[in-house]
Amino acid sequence: MTLHELRQKRKTLADEMRKLHSDIGEDTWSEEQRGKWSTMKKDLDGLEDQIKREEELRDLDQRFVDNHEDDHEERRNGGQEETAEKRQAKAFEAFIREGLGEMDPELRSVIREMRAQGTDPDSKGGFTVPVEFQSRVIERMKAYGGLANIANVITTSDGRSMEWATTDGTAEEGELLGENTAAGEGDVNFGMESLGAKKLSSKVIRLSNELLQDSGVSIESLLVNRLAMRLGRGEAKYLVNGSGAGTPVQPKGLATSVTGFTTTAGATMVWQDFNALKHSVDPAYRNSTCRWLFNDSTLQEASELVDTNGRPLWVPGLSSDAPATFLGHAYQVDQAVAEAAANAQFAYFGDFNAFIVRRVAGMFIKRLVERYAEYDQTGFIGFHRFDCLLEDAEAIKGLKLKA
User: Which CATH number is associated with domain 91-164+192-295+334-403?
Assistant: First the structure.
């Protein structure tokens, strides 16, 4: 089947599962209904695996087209003058392959302009990568960290520290007044947190000079993938588990920031534990934007849970507008969240718009030549600056597994 046919078949099967789930409602599920659901879920998992493989193949084809798009456009335009973005992309590619010393003087001047745009003193020796390159890295980073996909992400032009007000309005309420009675005062208690710009390194990526000289290899795509993998996993780890302390100082991640936790009744998870976590979040925050957050192994186990009537808690999605849900809410997978082990904080629920992720625009990259000359290799290292904080501690709660 084609990718379109696979997607259509998956949509039809998911629709049948959602209809079965809805038709039975709150009634107790029979063994026959449970068996039918299990068979359909197994078929759905198989289709999703096929779709994933087809999408990966299509992505590879698209990357090839994207890598040669500039050549085709230049031929179509009859060699007309390039835009500033294309000049930067061409200069960046030349810088990666050849270094400043071997570059065409015109392209070298573009690199100097890009380097001059850097406002951070730590960028000396490197330069700001083209916007399109950074966008591709950030887009690929989504695959390695789920929390940033549902958090409130802000991007700033520089890394100067920002003061951010935090508050908890759960206990605040109005008052009933009699006639000619003065209103009382209810001060809002604000806290103040600082959003900095913690610097994350990709570590050195070493490439052979033969590879750099091979014009048939897209070095830019290779670097995008490597940087996204390393920076994405690194950022995800600290967004979830950053301690807010240490040397260098880590971001204060979700696990450290969340103060309200529910503990499972036993040493294994049951559906009542997730229901208790859901209802530990104040109803004022428990809206349509609320999400679950856990890792893939927890999702796998949780998706098999049923309530006391045998009703599955996991329901497949149809599209991005109707995503898969667990206990009535969409979820996000992040592998940085802990496994379900004794005393581990393995699941979260709440409004993740209260979790602020700050990223600094302008990713820097450095080219290291002499360091690996004896290996006939060139090193590359990228730097990404970010920070995070929980704006409202009442908005998100966590679940711990009992020892």
Answer: 3.30.2400.10
